[in-house]
User: What shape does this take?
Amino acid sequence: MKFFIDTAEIDEIRALSKTGMVDGVTTNPTLIAKSGRKFMDVIAEICDIVPGPISAEVTATEADAMIKEGRKLAKIAKNVAVKLPLTVDGLTACKTLRNDGTMVNVTLCFSAAQALLAAKAGATFISPFVGRLDDIGQDGMELIADICEIYGEYPDFATEVLVASVRHPVHVVQAAKLGAHVATLPPKILRQLYDHPLTDKGLAAFLADWAKTGQSIL
Ligand code: G3P
Assistant: This one.
């Protein structure tokens, strides 16, 4: 499973990319606004830090304008993945940008039917928002199961399932069990994946016992 980081905060991306666990980054207009940075500048900086796919979202809503914006974003760096909302205009723009050879992340997916259309449009990634479905009392992970089942029936579908709107480590484990290709994680959740109190406790005990030996390895 690939892990992308869902943020536009450069310091977080730089720190976490050092762990070797970061395979890409996703941003959206809200995350860009939170960063307080100029959109094109922050995407260029992220592309320099992380060699994997860096999602940068268009803000136009009509296909021709989406294509124009997408082509401008794609020029920032070769690892830019243009993010398009799952609307009929977004799907139209997806086909054109994919024909250009540009990676496309189709976002704001909330149904299996939408995901089927994104695969038909040749999307590189589909981003179903599990947390926002959970937030309204639906089962976001059921959508991931449906998408993985459908995509599994069509080997010619090259679209990768990029689980988004992740709220906790259980979402990540459940998505991995379903065979989702990618999970995009807020930095806090990536840290929660490796932090465990019993690991800390066990390590402290090992080191305390080792100290008693008076030995050192180097
Ligand atoms: O960036 C796409 C998605 O991960 C946003 O999730 O937390 O705003 O529901 P969230």
